[in-house]
Amino acid sequence: MRICTARCSRCLNCVSQCFFNAISTASHDLVIDEALCTDCGMCRDSCPMDAISDEMHDDPVETAEQRGICLYLTATAGRLSEGSLEVLGAGLRLKEHNRQRLTAFLLGEYVHEAAEEAIRCGADEVWMAEHSRLTPYAVDLHAGLVTDWLKELGPSIVLSGDRSLERSVMGYAAVRLHTGLCADCIQAAIDPQHEGLVVTRTAFGGQLMADIHIPRHRPQMATLKEGAFRPPPVYQPSGGLIVNRTDDISGLNSVYELLESRKIERLRNDFANAQIIVAVGRGIGCAEQLDSVYELADLLDARIGATRAVVESGWLDVTHQIGQSGTIVRPQLYIACGISGALQHTIGMDQADRVIAINSDRDAPIFQYADYGIVGDVRQVLPRLSERIRERRAARSRNGMD
Amino acid sequence: MDIIVCVKQVPARQGEGSGRESVPLINNPNDLNALEEALRIKELADGSRVTTLSMGPPGCEGLLRELLAAGADEAVLLSSPGFAGSDTYATSKILAAAVHKLLPFDLILTGERAIDGETGQVGPGLAAILEIPHQLGVEQVLTFDPHSVIIDKVNETYAWRIRLPIPALLTIRRSANTPRIPSIRGRLAASSKQVIVWDQHDLGLSGAGIGSRESPTQVIRTVKSDYSYKSRGAAVFIGEHQLDEILETVSAALDQPDGRPL
Ligand SMILES: Cc1cc2nc3c(=O)[nH]c(=O)nc-3n(C[C@H](O)[C@H](O)[C@H](O)COP(=O)(O)OP(=O)(O)OC[C@H]3O[C@@H](n4cnc5c(N)ncnc54)[C@H](O)[C@@H]3O)c2cc1C
Ligand code: SF4
Ligand code: SF4
Q1: CA nearest A310: which of A329, A338, A291, A332?
Q2: ipTM of this model?
Q3: Ligand 2 contacts CB of residue A31 (under 6 A)
Q4: At what angle do helices A139-153 and A164-176 cross, to 10 degrees?
Q5: CATH number 3.40.190.10 is the correct assignment for the domain at B2-214
Q6: Which helix (H) or strand (E) holds A298?
Q7: A10 and A159 assigned to the same domain
Q8: Cβ of A215 and B224 within 8 Å?
């Protein structure tokens, strides 16, 4: 018998099981004394981490061929959450490249409509568990079930969104499956050269973008940053089926006991449906100057975004933050006002259809990300812009009345 | 209560230089919220112990002294060449080995995220290895007894009050509290406390599954920050007198359902 130390969680189950005291706990990494071991197999069967085997290599690499793409989805108010729609979109695009089966997991109190929605979007199969015990704070039930299902399904790729429950479940499952997890990915692709999934995220404090892969472990797991991926383009029913696995939670109870619950305001601004975003940077100068931003946003029926510098200055609250540690947005029009264009910010707005940038510095990097650039003092340009829009509208409605 | 607080040392100025060596380190601000929560509990529960746990380069003992000065009883630094480049999985594994050495404990507290753009995944990973419950996004530890704690936590849409058994791992939100500034008395007291340094040997780790080479996730390449994944070419510069031109072009491209062109 051998213990794979990379897998062992040091629960010490095996030690108590070994009749021959063959397992030494002297150091953190357990060792089986070959001289004492009788190969009875008791320890192997008691190990929750599948860390013990009679094979001689100490290699955590999955040798079995794992296939398929698995998506861990969530529902809000019965519908697929926005983030999950994006995960579906990303999964479908990966499938176009590797032609593998797309299976979605959906667990929650009320998910069967979301399961149908996932099928309508193109999932080949949905494994569903719908039960009042599957509340979003019952992290242990979700994580345990997802881990068991992943072991059974054996996919090569697992994707999810980046919200609280998803981060809990993916973090737990990755450790249990002894595999890698890339968090907050803003791109995902199949790269034949690197054996499957390659994801992109920021690295080293966000000054660099890194392409990351998981070469020797399966499944390759990743959480996708909300807003960075497009929802499925068209509804393309695949004739997929829903497998109801609710019975799998029978007998399982969460250790978390709810005492009180209250709905709160969204921690994220509703940028998803915004056609136009007016975003402000430190170049606006001070909080008082925001009036001209509000004015333009009102005129355009736009949402207001901000850089981290603005949020840290306390001029706008964090729900407005766009970028790496804020929201990723994809409006039709993005007006960047006094924003320098740091990578951590542009990650969040680079996919806007059109970008207008206003900055007093002609060399500001934001102009690399803009279609139109106005070099000038944002405190003068913004009122001019609002005024011009009002004049044009007035002129148009006069013409209309003629 | 025996509380372990995970505190990461991160570059002080974000977005400058790419080598960690050149930029001075600070304690990750959000992790100080976790320490504050631990110190608050310590004040309420006699006989509590607060141990901080950090994995980082040698030479950040000075920063760990700050934690001792704030009121931690013990600071442990995990530092070894073999730890360098560890990803989430490998880091969780190293921290778990240290936690095993620190047993028993009631709570592990940590921040939600490190400011150097880290993943926020070490908490759930560590809890999975230790096989203990965990909750993310904790605003406050309300009450505790020898077997359980009651916490307030939030996710994107709900605020919950939850009871859970201990030992458990909780990630503390930035908004949870205001970390205290070490007092003179705290600093004096800290000078008699030791920073404990453990390396790979001390933890009894063979090297399997840790460090950059054995981490499951591997960086293929990194690209400098002028990288733009939808390159649109540089902007066309427009003078202020040409605003109409922009408005005209942009208007045409927008589909404004309410018929309000720019
Ligand atoms: C880990 C990490 C995560 C981060 N996450 C994010 C994130 O999610 N979102 C984010 O935005 N940032 C983020 N940042 C911060 C980011 O690196 C930048 O510091 C920030 O985006 C800069 O904001 P800014 O453009 O408002 O300010 P500055 O960089 O100070 O730029 C101000 C700009 O305004 C211009 N200006 C000044 N006066 C005027 C004027 N009167 N008229 C017109 N223009 C003027 C200047 O020329 C300058 O270009 C992160 C950083 C790190 C390290
Ligand atoms: S195989 Fe049997 S004898 Fe050998 S270590 Fe395991 S339990 Fe002990
Ligand atoms: S039972 Fe498995 S996980 Fe537990 S200590 Fe033994 S080898 Fe490690």
Answers
A1: A338
A2: 0.85
A3: no
A4: 50
A5: no
A6: helix A290-300
A7: no
A8: no
